[in-house]
Amino acid sequence: MSVRIVDTTLRDGSHSIAHRYTPAQVATCAAMLDEAGVWAIAVGHGDGLGAGSRQYGFAPHSDAELIGAAAAVAQRARLAVALLPGIGTKDDLRAAHEAGAGVVRVSTVTTEADIGIQHLQLARELGMDAHSHLNMASIASVEQTVEAGRIVVDAGSTALYLVDSAGAFLPDEVRARVSALREAFDPEIAIGIHEHNNLSLAVANSVVAIEAGAEIVDVTLAGMGAGAGNCQGEALIAVLARLGIETGIDLFKLQDAADDYVRKELMPGPIVVDRLTATLGYAGVPASFLLHTIRAGERFGVDPRQIILALGERQVVVGQEDMILDVASDLSRAG
What's the structural domain count of the chain? Predict the structure, then answer.
């Protein structure tokens, strides 16, 4: 049994530093990941191609610059990008491909999978690996998850990722959905898992997904990412080695990249499960909302946990960060 590892430190990790990666940082980290043996390296703005804006956070360098920096050093690993329809455009995808990206994960809310069809089709036309991130998977039933999978597979996607954007899944929920996807689709359609750690279950849920049939796993070095971070790559690789599951990764080199570079040079502080990040998982709110929620709480004098709970009641999804200020304002007026 073997799995492919996609490291998303240079994409998901961007959330924790307000999307401020430099080409030099990307090149250094990508070279270490490539040397460690990851299958693919995800690069770019945390909210995907073309997301640099007032709403999602301006970045000092374009996606193409960052992809190009990684392409210059990656000898073996594929380069992957995320595209959220409604944020990224076809032109953004073409530019990313020209810069060196070979894999695109078209990222939609699980219940809105049809909005990514044209982007998947363009990826195929460009000769890229066309994959699908089914975001906010915790709000969709098993049946809705399979239905979303059928939509994107029919559009040309060759991989389906269950994306736990809020870090809200329990292991049995992961097992049920991955098993259903694996049963519903032919073996050539890969199943992936992308976990966040808001309930301290990212590694465990990733292992459960692999046992249920997942073949691709997203991780980050030192768990760097939004909220309480992502599935910690070096921890997962150690667990998989104990289980006899092949990844092609040199564990010590991955650990060195995490400790000697990411923790010392990139991370603004430790990634922790605290009262705010755990509340994100409890309420089912995307991990990428954390910094925006903290700022809104300070601005309106409201406990960020109350904002998170109210957002969870509204079942917010990735891309609806603009609702944070409205909720905070309403709570402030209500006392």
Answer: 2
